[in-house]
Amino acid sequence: DPFGEQGPAWPRAPSPGRPASGAAKLEVAGAMAAASGDKLLTAISRLGLGLGGLAVIPSICLFDVDGGQRAVVLNMLTGVEDKVRGEGTHFRVPWLMQPKLYNIRTRPKLIQTT
Length: 114
Known about the structure:
two-stranded antiparallel ribbon, alpha+beta
């Protein structure tokens, strides 16, 4: 006997003319519950990965222009865009649009006279 004295590890189905014993019914119910738990964990992991992927999109597709700065966008297909973007959050297409930020703050310059 390849399974030893105890038989195979999985529950055996009752033969077609005989009702299943109580222990066999519990084993089948336990196996079904385990399969249901596996499906639930698979669904939760897929949901978590999907939400994680969605959380990354804003950091890739958005850029911020702070106060005292302006942005000029380099489009990889058409070149530099004419529109200068001011303060705020702006949309960009990853790998196609590259924003270049420039500081436009005026700096005080002290001129000494004698």
